[in-house]
Amino acid sequence: MWNEEYEMVSERFSGELESNSSLCIRQLGNMNGILDKANKILSSILDSSPDVIVFALDCDYRYLSFNAKHKETMQAIWGKEIAIGMNMLDVIGNHADGIKAKANFDRALRGESFSLTEEYGDEAISRLFWQNFWSPFFSQTGEIMGLTCFVLNITDRKRLEMDLSREKVLLETTLTSVGDGVISTDNMGNIVFLNKVGETLTGWTQEDARGKPIEEVFVIVNEYTREKNENIVEKVLASGRIEELANHTLLISKDGSERPIEDSAAPIIQENGEIAGVVLVFRDFSEKKQKQEEIEFLSYHDQLTGLYNRRFYEEELIRLDIEKSLPMAIVMGDVNGLKLVNDSFGHVMGDQLLKKVAEVLKKSCRSCDIIARLGGDEFVIILPNTDDSGAEKIIKRIKELESLALDPLSAHVPCG
Question: All domains of the chain, ordered by start, with CATH?
Answer without folding.
Answer: 28-158 (3.30.450.20), 178-285 (3.30.450.20), 301-405 (3.30.70.270)
